[in-house]
Amino acid sequence: MKGRREQIVYLPCIYRNTDIMKPDYLATVDVDPESSTFTQVIHRLPMPNLRDELHHSGWNACSSCFGDASKTRNRLILPSLISSRVYVVDVGTDPRAPQIHKVVEPVDMFWKCDLANPHTSHCLGNGQIMISCIGDPSGNGKGGFVLLDGETFEVIGNWEHPGEAAPFGYDFWYQPRHNVMISTEWGAPKALANGFNPAHVKEGLYGRSIHVWDWTTHRKLQTLDLGEEGAIPLEIRFLHDPDATEGYVGCALRSIVFRFYKTPKGDWAAEKVISVPSKKVEGWVLPEMPGLITDILISLDDRYLFFSNWLHGDIRQYDITDRRNPRLVGQVFLGGSIVSDGSVRVLEDPENQPQPRPRIIQGRRVPGGPQMLQLSLDGRRLYVTTSLYSGWDKQFYPDMAKEGSVMMQIDVDSVDGGLSVNEDFLVDFGKEPGGPSLAHELRYPGGDCTSDIWL
């Protein structure tokens, strides 16, 4: 937390499901307030293919490689959610102007692992790279894990044993001191590829469980069914303390946060600790609108939990020093589907909040709602982008798909709690030279609180 302040960030920018037929690209953004190019995109690295759907990224080396002098955090691992390619990007030679180092073609993943649609990438302490997948090559749900060699970036094979893949996949986090890894579920790629159909939930094409794995033997030990309230469990975060035996997972569809924990018996369990109630509305596709929790993170000191409600349009900050009883200490609205001048009218809100006014920063109306989050190491700056996934962006926020997304900065009171918009910070991806793009997940070159796992 006492590390150097972030100066640049990397984030993938997507053209799939927009009107622009150009490759996705990796943007480098200057976030140093002392710089003459502050809040500007200073470099763009286009991919060599169209319609990849760049999404989340990880590292070839991180804190889990601590003590190994041969490891350097110089390659960004950039999986493509739809094309199933994995781009390995050289960010070490010139951090401000990354270049492609290698492309792992989907055929390797298909044939060697019977997996597709890679999502989360984590480096491992043994030097390998592990990527969770959400499907098989036919578009069915399949929660397996691909291993890459950390030097050659060749596909080694599956991490899980044959026949033990989960029904669905998405995110994962491991805690070596307790010999455990826990993974989450999104849905079948063929169901979610081009939008969200609520009927697919009833048809069993979306997940509602988290899976507990033995980190050493790679065996699946438990499946915790979170029930209807736990439908679509997405981002999962252990506490950063490597001795911790608990963490949180955000469940999108009912906007519930579950705490998962190790029991005195030695197995794992989960309990609901935060619930964002749906609002009764008119003028929307359904009579009730969930918050849709799409990203969560925990500050490096394990004191605060942050999450975004992509549909309601707010970011919330909770004090989690009492792990079982999170306390809301900060909230800010940034766009969303219930803005006061929009077509949706809130008829009943259990939280009795007024419909928020649209958020305008430097003359730009914030499109979409707050989605991906990244917190500065010192916990005082929260960076936010508004794109979720191009197929869902186009469905729920068609204006954003046409006009591009934005990146914002929220000032965080890390002592008493509290969130406020930094009115001097805006990166407008609607003004990109290649046309408006959809900017997604944020990464700092030196590591951050969603990429690094401590041993």
List the helices and strands and how they pair.
Layout lengths: L7 E7 L10 E6 L10 E6 L11 E2 L15 E5 L6 E5 L8 E6 L1 H8 L2 E8 L5 E7 L9 E4 L6 E4 L13 E4 L4 E4 L5 H4 L5 H5 L6 E6 L5 E6 L7 E6 L7 E6 L4 E7 L5 E8 L3 E4 L5 E2 L3 E6 L5 E6 L4 E6 L7 E7 L11 E4 L11 E2 L2 E2 L7 E3 L5 E5 L4 H7 L1 H6 L2 E7 L6 E3 L5 E2 L9 E2 L16
Task: Summarize this structure briefly.
With 455 residues, this protein is mainly beta. 7% of the residues lie in helices and 37% in strands.
First-to-last CA distance: 17 Å
Q: Report the CATH architecture.
A: 7 Propeller
Average pLDDT confidence is 96
CATH topology: Methylamine Dehydrogenase, Chain H
The helix fraction, in percent, is: under 10%
* DSSP strand content: 35-45%
**CATH domain class:** Mainly Beta
CA radius of gyration is: 20 Å
Based on DSSP secondary structure assignment, what is the total number of beta strands? 34
Defining key terms:
5 helices, 5-stranded antiparallel sheet, mainly beta, Methylamine Dehydrogenase, Chain H, 4-stranded antiparallel sheet, 34 strands, 7% helix, 455 residues
